[in-house]
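Q: I'm writing up a methods section and want to include an example of the input and output format. Could you take the sequence below and give the corresponding predicted structure tokens, formatted cleanly so I can copy it straight into the document?
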Amino acid sequence: MDTVGIILSLLVVVIIIVSLLSNVLVLICFLYSPEIRKQVPALFTLNLTFCNLLLTVSNMPLTLVGLVNNGQIGGQVLCQSAGFLDTFLTTNSMLSMAALSIDRWIAVVFPLSYHSKMRHRDAAFVLGYTWVHSVCFSTVAACLSWVGYNQLYASCTLCNARANSSRTQFVVFTVVFHSLTFLLSLVVLCVTYLKVLKVARFHCKRIDVITMQTLVLLVDIHPSVRQRCLEEQKRRRQRATKKISTFIGSFVVCFAPYVITRIVELFPVVPINSHWGVASKCLAYSKAACDPFVYSLLRNQYRKTCSDIINKILKRSSLNTSGRQHENGRNNFVQTAEGTLP
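A: Here is the clean output for your methods example:
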């Protein structure tokens, strides 16, 4: 294994560790907090976390072994099963992100009617569609034996070499598959989040007008207070832009190189470096490690839940420690008292 291969292997190890820990933490927060569980978006987040965890424990280790051994590990049945999971989980994750963006759009643009437009029954219907969509494409690829070990990505996934006898059908399937997963999800993300950004900026302008009017009326206000108000006004305008850029940017950065490489791979005359193929696959895997932070752990509700869990553990630990100290003190007192007896 060369230096680039070692670096890519270490990268996969880091992605596995971060993805496993962060997604498990999201599940713990979901199970611990009833407030999180009763929210409708929590269903989409739970589905996304489930897909990320399953991808982390099933496909990522096989990619790591393929990198280390420079070849397929396990039998054909294992590789085809992993290829089915890779297609299913990646598709389901993309559609779950699109569902989360639709939920945010309804919550921001239609706040008064949100609870009537997005109920748990509606969320379950959307999740049902994501599963049917994912299962259909994965099943077609598996039934036509288009999944297997792909040396370019060191992974069990859609394999161009296994479709030599039906190349035209494979090309059509690949284009339609990525159009209805990556491209569709990207369009939904851009449309919904840009609508959300437009509404957020409108509200920021209204707040800014009220703030400026208040500052004008309060002529005796201290300059430092006025400066803090203006700085908070600037941060408020930037906050929504940063969040929207994170949602869309992480999706594009992680998935676009892999999808573009898959499309370019359809043209045999275009050479693709094997290291780039593995690197693009690692970028796609890294989305599983980013999602818990982008959609959950950096939110105030999840941070509060994590803080409550940590405080509860530390409190219980301190109680156990004080209990043991009290017990030891009592034993020492008894032993001292017994020693003073004649």
